[in-house]
Amino acid sequence: MSQNVFFIFQMNSLSYKIFWRGYQDEEDLLRRCAKVVCGSVQRRIWHREPFNLQKAPEGQDHVLEGRLHFGEDVNDEWFAIGLLLRISAQIKDVVIKLEDEDDGDILLIEAADDIPNWAQEPDLADMRTYLRHGRVHLIPYNPTTPALLTPLPNCLPDLKSAVDVVAKYSRITEASKDVQKVIVDRVEKSSLESTNHFIHVFIPEKAAKLLRHSPRLVSAFVHSFLELNGHEARECRPEDSDVLVKSGVEMTKCLYAMLSSKTLYPNRKSSWQFPPDQRHPDFKANADGFKLAVGLNAMMKCLQSNLRSGSEDSLDLFLNHSKLQGDDHGLADLEEALGACENDDAPISPPLKEADSDSWMNFNAEEFDRLLQKHFGETNDSRIVDSLEMFLNRESDLKGVEEDCDTPDEDCGTEEVQFKVDKFQDAFESLFERLSSAKIDAEMEDELKAANLTLEDGSADVVNALNAAAGADGPMKTFLSSINK
Fold first, then answer.
1. Kind and range of the H or E element at 190?
2. Are 216 and 46 in contact (CB under 8 A)?
3. CA–CA distances in Å: residue 473 to residues 180, 428, 464, 477
4. Average pLDDT of span 396-405
5. Per the confidence metrics, is the pTM higher than 0.85?
6. Which tens digits make up the pLDDT trace of 90-114?
7. Is the predicted pLDDT of residue 267 greater than 90, yes or no?
8. 63 vs 17, 22, 58, 157, 283, CA distance in Å?
9. 425 backbone dihedrals φ, ψ, rounded to 5°
């Protein structure tokens, strides 16, 4: 079996550091942070791994640190940002620095429409965004007054200095109300129940009991199933002796979409058979439950081949696997669920709640246009065309075009380039008629003058260059020959 079935991808990660000015008791701060976020962390179904915090290595300026691998579900990243905002709001003198390890400053990216122009330049905005008092802070940058005596850095600040500035001058560094609203709205969106999806499944009783005691195990089942190849998946099909029960399972929409992306059916000789008609109400419940059961068996099989010793039972295998993963933050909840399952004789009750519709997975062009309109507002096609034409007439430096005008009618400081195609074509046609000869006669000069061109001020050099280019092999000869034709 593949050795990387349970490998947690080190991509799409959020790293964060917590500074506590004037205090050095890391254990006390860790305990206080856990008290603030523990309930939310335990109740959430995390996509890859739960929010975590640990003491920083010795010699660091920060006290606590953490790293969340949120994988394919960006809602986990924003939920974690919400937890960090809550910590900064409820614990005095805390300053937090966070960063998306792939995209950079995720706060500035989300609030890009509302931050100052200078903050859109990564080299200027670096090391200037923090969390304090439950708010986003952006250290101002003022390059126009370098001689002004100010505690605010006008160059790239080091981390310790930036934290001190935010702690001492919070009223100055606090970002605008628009930025605060954008961030809070995005955090609240990640916390909504609408990000979850409830389904009915037929599943082995032992798996149903595990999920009843620890609902977030569904994430491990889904990922272990998806990371199997075809041969491994067939080897991990449930046994015929497994007792199936109908249960309700809640997972994130991201997990459900990933689970639905892969198809697997039981062996034809298996006692677990799906309804022949895919439109049957129980077909989806059987298909989803079968895949979750395969994911559970894959975890069991992998652990048995690597960890099993003597009479160690399956629940111990699960616990040992969690320790190997280093998932200390969810370990207490998982250990409690595994221990309870050993003597759990309570039957699995059928779900009372109806399964959620998965129509949200069907997306068409019209719905996409409605989403764009909702996000960006009404758009005028003619305005877009006019803006594009005006943009193409602008000049840019290495940082791109800076557009100061709100409407195409305003003067943006540029002049329209006048290019008379007919006169240009006539002049070149006259030139190429005589490219075979080495001299320019008076008649040609008259024609050039009639086309508002002269041989003065270096124009003769241009003609000589054209003569030379027409006689030499290369792309220029091909180009000139095509025009001459």
1. helix 177-191
2. yes
3. 64, 20, 16, 6
4. 60
5. no
6. 998 899 999 999 899 999 999 999 9
7. no
8. 8, 11, 9, 20, 52
9. -65, -40
Residue 312 neighbours by CB under 8 Å, 6+ apart: 320
Based on DSSP, count helices (H) and strands (E) in the chain, helices before strands: 20, 8
Query: What is the CB neighbour count within 10 angstroms for residue 297?
Result: 23
Q: 56-59: list long-range contacts, CB under 8 Å, 24+ apart.
A: 56/17, 56/26
Q: Which residue has the higher pLDDT, 439 or 25?
A: 25
For residue 80, count CB atoms less than 10 angstroms from its CB and return exposed for 0-12, middle for 13-18, buried for 19 or more.
buried
Question: Residue 367 contacts by C-beta under 8 Å, 6 or more apart in sequence?
Answer: none
Who contacts 484 (Cβ-Cβ below 8 Å, separation ≥6)? 429, 432, 435, 470
The C-alpha atoms of residue 79 and residue 4 are separated, in whole angstroms, by: 28
End-to-end CA distance of the chain: 69
Whether 339 has a pLDDT exceeding 90, the answer reads no
Q: Provide the residue type at 53 as one letter.
A: L
Pair of tokens at residue 83: 């937890």
Tokens of 352: 């009372």
40 within 8 A of 80, measured Cβ to Cβ: no
Residue 313 has pLDDT above 50, yes or no: no
The token duo for 373 is 């309109």
Pairing of strands 54-55, 196-204: unpaired
